[in-house]
Amino acid sequence: MNNNIYRNIEDTRITISELMLPSHANFSGKIHGGYILKLMDQIAFACASKHSGTYCVTASVDTVNFINPIEVGELVTMKASINYVGKTSMVVGIRVEAQNIQTGNTKHCNSSYFTMVAKKDNGDNAKVPGIIINDDNEMRRFLEAIHRIKMKKNRQEKFDNDNFTAQNYIEELKNYNVKIEL
């Protein structure tokens, strides 16, 4: 008998919106990327905690690409949903959009993936509920997360193991802006 609990992805989606103020700007007058990352971490926490029913911590952040700058005065909306669940971890997908509230024009600014780990009160990892996939888009997101996890593991095995030999990669680096002096 399967005693696992499963939750609909829709039930744990979170959306937040915030008006971007001059105090959020960097030296070039655009909204500081670090401020956006802070908001993304907050929504990832909220989404993962809502799904798991526990306190969650950020384990990693993957694929942070700042596609379009965000201006002071724009309304930023972040949408988060659970894309993947493991035993104690979840991948939260986040989409960031900014809207010019005067013109109504909206632009995609960022998409990112936060791996969150559920915690028990004593600090140990907590088991998380599974997810129920209801459509092709949710299936695609789950599969994409599996592939990102596999690629990350393969990269770590290739470059983090004790068998790495720099000499094996000199030819590969020939066409890059690097000078090798081993």
What would you say this structure looks like, in words?
With 182 residues, the chain is α+β, with helices and mostly antiparallel strands. The protein has a single domain, classed as Hotdog Thioesterase (Thiol Ester Dehydrase, Chain A). 25% of the residues lie in helices and 33% in strands. It has 2 helices and 7 strands. The strands form 2 sheets. It has a 5-stranded antiparallel beta sheet with strand order 2-4-5-6-3. The chain has a two-stranded parallel ribbon with strand order 1-7. The longest helix has 25 residues.
CATH homologous superfamily identity: Hotdog Thioesterase
Outline type: globular
Number of helices: 2
Mean pLDDT: 94
What is the correct CATH architecture?
Roll
How are the strands ordered across the major sheet? 2-4-5-6-3
The number of domains: 1
Instruction: Indicate the radius of gyration in whole angstroms.
Output: 20 Å
Domain HotDog ACOT-type: 10-122
Keywords: Hydrolase
Organism: Tenacibaculum discolor
EC number: 3.1.2.20
Summarize the SSE layout with pairings:
Layout: E1 6-8, E2 14-19, H1 33-52, E3 55-66, E4 75-85, E5 89-99, E6 106-119, E7 130-132, H2 136-160
Parallel strand pairs: 1-7
Antiparallel strand pairs: 2-4, 3-6, 4-5, 5-6
